[in-house]
């Protein structure tokens, strides 16, 4: 596993006048970001002092950001952590970030493409696979359709229309 950055949130703008920011969360809950002490915001390393639910996402305060102007300057920045900063997973669990970039092969081992995105619209994870010709297909990430096997995604080619 590489220690590439994993995006936890994006800064949507300033909140109030004291330097807090509004976050659009990319995880399931505030707890995912709240357990972090230090995060990277754009090109800066910042210390997370507090985070709480708010406004359909979260409100965060960084030690280094003291006023609204400084908070507003962060608008649009991604909040990331190294992959190694995430909690360990139980057997059968995975982070979406770990799936991005994995090669996709057919049942006979033939190259079908690679995972470029993972979506979840409420009924389970969907893998977006870019084929060698540049076209993309979406397949459900479930047993018998797309399985995680030995560092690659094994896909039944019938689902790649």
Summary of the model, kept short:
The chain is built from three helices and twelve strands; from the N terminus they run ββαβββαβαββββββ. Strands 1-2-5-4-3-6 form a six-stranded antiparallel β-barrel. A six-stranded mixed beta sheet has the order 10-9-8-7-12-11. The radius of gyration is 19 Å and the shape is elongated.
Which keywords apply here?
six-stranded mixed β-sheet; mainly beta; 161 residues; elongated; six-stranded antiparallel beta barrel; single chain; 12 strands; 3 helices
Describe this structure as you would to a colleague.
The chain has helices at residues 31-34, 68-72, 96-99, and strands spanning 5-15, 20-25, 38-41, 44-54, 57-62, 78-82, 103-105, 111-120, 125-130, 136-140, 146-149, 152-155. It starts with a strand and ends in a 6-residue tail after the last strand. By secondary structure, the chain is mostly beta strands. The protein has three helices and twelve strands; from the N terminus they run ββαβββαβαββββββ. It is 8% helix and 47% strand. Strands 1-2-5-4-3-6 form a six-stranded antiparallel beta barrel. The protein is elongated and about 60 Å long.
Helix-strand pattern: EEHEEEHEHEEEEEE
- Major sheet: arrangement of strands: 1-2-5-4-3-6
- What is the average of the pLDDT values? 89
Helix content: under 10%
Q: For the terminal residues, how far apart are their CA atoms?
A: 31 Å
The number of helical runs is 3
Main pleated-sheet profile: 6 strands, antiparallel, barrel
Beta-sheet strand percentage? over 45%
From the spread of the alpha carbons, the general shape counts as: elongated
> Uncertain spans, ≥5 residues at pLDDT below 50?
none
Radius of gyration: 19 Å
Question: Would you report the number of β strands?
Answer: 12
Structural class: mainly beta
């Amino acid at each position: 596993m590489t220690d590439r950055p994993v995006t936890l949130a994006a800064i949507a703008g300033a909140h109030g006048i004291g330097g807090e920011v509004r976050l659009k969360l990319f995880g399931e809950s505030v707890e995912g970001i709240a357990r972090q002490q230090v995060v990277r915001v754009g090109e800066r390393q910042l210390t997370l002092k507090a985070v709480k639910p708010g406004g359909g996402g979260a409100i965060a305060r960084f030690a280094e950001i003291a006023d609204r102007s400084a908070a507003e300057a962060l608008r649009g920045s991604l909040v990331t952590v190294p992959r190694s900063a995430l909690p360990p997973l139980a057997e059968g669990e995975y982070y979406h970030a770990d799936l991005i970039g994995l090669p996709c092969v057919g049942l006979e081992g033939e190259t079908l493409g690679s995972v470029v995105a993972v979506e979840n619209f409420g009924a389970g994870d969907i893998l977006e696979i870019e084929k060698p010709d540049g076209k993309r297909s979406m397949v459900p990430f479930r047993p018998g359709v797309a399985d995680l096997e030995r560092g690659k995604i094994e896909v039944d080619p019938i689902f790649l229309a």
